From TrEMBL:
This is Maf-like protein. Gene3D superfamilies: 3.90.950.10. Keywords: Hydrolase. Coiled coil: none annotated. It holds the Pfam family Maf. InterPro entries: ITPase-like_fam, Maf-like. HAMAP family: Maf. It comes from the Eukaryota. The keyword rRNA-binding does not apply. GO terms for molecular function: nucleoside triphosphate diphosphatase activity.
Amino acid sequence: MASFKIILGSSSASRKQILSEMGYQFTVMGADIDEKLIRKEKAEDLVMALAEAKADAIIAKLKENGFEEGNSEPTLLITADQVVLHGGEIREKPRDADEARQFIKGYSKGHASTVGSVMVTNLKTGVRKGDWEKAEIYFHEIPEEVIDNLIKEGDVLYVAGGLMVEHPLTSPFVEAMVSSLSLSSFVQTMVGTIDSVMGLPKALTERLIKEAIQEQ
């Protein structure tokens, strides 16, 4: 039983699923920020800035609602963000179905990268720990009819780069995934980390939770 409470600062179904798989109980709050107002040249800087902005927005909302940390167990706020890199360009959520189609067609017989951040804020101590992880995804040819069905279904319109490798229509055309985690001083490489591509890397999240709890 965890000796802390968790607020997941994301309405993403994938992140809720992953955090549940990790064995945690949590409440959910959305940040409701205009992500387009935050711009950075590097994807890693952008996702970190967005995760931090989401945390700040949720903390402000909690204070408005009279939230106070008592003397019991702390509350951890987890925020995250993700973008897709393809052809040297940063891709966020598609503007419309046409752009989503263009994105997905570009991945066919090629590869894309996801860059995702996780930020854990201890609301009792103010300690904030964050990091990012990058994953490379390699694709077989994605048939036009599969792309049509993905667009028609619509879920790809609400994720970075229109990329949902875990989707049953997409997953048969994923050739390989390789993930690398930035740990400030070194890089750890692992294969097939689907949770990283889905927007909440389990190992990274677990590490940041421990760091946010342990540091006073």
